[in-house]
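Let's do one together. I've listed all components of the complex below, 494 residues spread over two lines.
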Amino acid sequence: MRILITNDDGWGTPGIRLLVEQLQTLGEVIVVAPKTAQSGMSNAISVGKMLRIDLVEQTDGKRVYTCNGTPSDCVKMGLEIVCHDLKPDLLVAGINHGSNAAVNVIYSGTMGAVYVGAEYGIPSIGFSLDDHRMEADFSHYKPYLLPITQKLIEMSVERGVCFNVNAPTGPLKGFQFARQCKGYWDDEFAEYHDPNGGTFYLMKGVFRNIEPEACDTDESVMKNGYIAITPTSVDTTHYPTFQKARQ
Amino acid sequence: MRILITNDDGWGTPGIRLLVEQLQTLGEVIVVAPKTAQSGMSNAISVGKMLRIDLVEQTDGKRVYTCNGTPSDCVKMGLEIVCHDLKPDLLVAGINHGSNAAVNVIYSGTMGAVYVGAEYGIPSIGFSLDDHRMEADFSHYKPYLLPITQKLIEMSVERGVCFNVNAPTGPLKGFQFARQCKGYWDDEFAEYHDPNGGTFYLMKGVFRNIEPEACDTDESVMKNGYIAITPTSVDTTHYPTFQKARQ
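Okay, and this is what the predicted structure of the assembly comes out as:
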C-alpha cells in the first residue's frame, strides 16, 4: 500500500510526525509537506509561481519531500511528479493542530489537500485535533488513527467523497459519524495603529454555533467526547435548491 | 439596497467594472477588491498577516476600497469594518475572467468570496465568464446580469446556500440551473530548468470531464449555449454517506 501524506503546518510539526509513524505500519509512505506554515490556505493553488519540490529525508519505506507551495500544490506535485509511476492508494493529511470542524472546513489547508485527493479519485482523509498549540497532546488520539483509517478505506466511498476527522482534547469515548455544524465566524479583526498613524488589522474571531442543540453535528459530537467523522463532498452543488429550480 | 462587490482579479479589471456599473442601478454599491491578482486563492484567509484596507474612490452611491488580502479577507473586512453599521443585502463577486464551473469552484477566489457571504447569511452570487483574457468580451453576458441577480434574490434560499453563475463565450440562448460537473484536472505541471541546474514547475492543466454525456451539469449547459447557474452549498457534508454511516 502506497500512502501520500501532507499537512498545512509543515514537516517539522508533531502532528504529521505522529501520523507518519502510525501509517508506516500500513505500507510505503511518501510525505510531501509545505516548506512554510500554510494554515488557512484552503484549496489555494500557486498559479504562475515557480514551484519546487525537494527530497529531504529517505529511509526504508519512507520518503519525505518539501514543497514551496500550498497544501493543494503538495498533493498535486505528489501525485503527478513523485507518484507518476504508481498512484497512491490513500491520501492522508494532518494531524492538523487545530479543529477543522464546522465552517473551518472551507478555510482549512489540511482539508484543501484532502479535497484534491478526492478530486483525483483517491481515498482521502484529514485528521485534526482541537488544539492549536505546537505542544498539543495527541496521546488520546493516537490509538484511533489506524482503526479509523482502516474503517474509512473499507467504506470505499464514491469518487469525490472524503473524510474530515476531528478529535476533541481530553479523554475520548470513541468515534461517531457527524455532519458539518452550521455556524459562522464573528468579531474577526483586531485593530492596530502603526508608528506612521496607519491602521492595520490582524485576524482573530469567535465561532458562533447556530445549532447548538443538534446532536449529530461535528461540534456536538466532539463536545460529547467523541471523535467526529464527517463525510465531505467535493461536489458543492446544493441539490435541494437545484432540484427545486429545475422543476 | 446595499450591495457588497468583490472579485479575485482586482479593481482594475473589466469584469468587476461591468458588474459595478450594472448593480449600481439596484442600490448603493461598496466594492472591496484585492490589491493584487488572487486567482486560485480559494477560501484562503490571511492568518497572522497585517491587513490594510484603503478607500480609493468615492462617488454618489459608490465607494471602492482595496485590501492587501485574499478575496475571502475582502469580504470579511467589507462586512465587519466597512459595513459594520449596516450589513449588505447582497454580495456579488466577479465577473471572473475564467470559468468557475465543475471542480474549479473549489479553487476559485471568486467563489471563495461568495462562500464567505453565504456563511454570514447574505444572499451571495458569483459571476464568471469562460474566457481568461483581460480583453474578454462581456457584451453577450451584460443583459443577463440584472435579471439573474433579481431572480436569485427572489428565490430567497436558506443561509449557507449561494450561486455559481458561469457563462460561455459567444451568443447565448438564455440561462439554466445546473449541478457541478464531475471531473478533475490533469497534466498539471510544466517542467523547467533554471540556470543553476535546479528544476522548477509552473501550473498548467487540462480539465477531464468524467460525465460528458450528462445534460444537467454546468459544463454541458454552457456547452449548449446557456449560462449555467449552480446552487452551491457551504455545508460540504456528503449526506448519502453520512446517513448510511449513521444507520
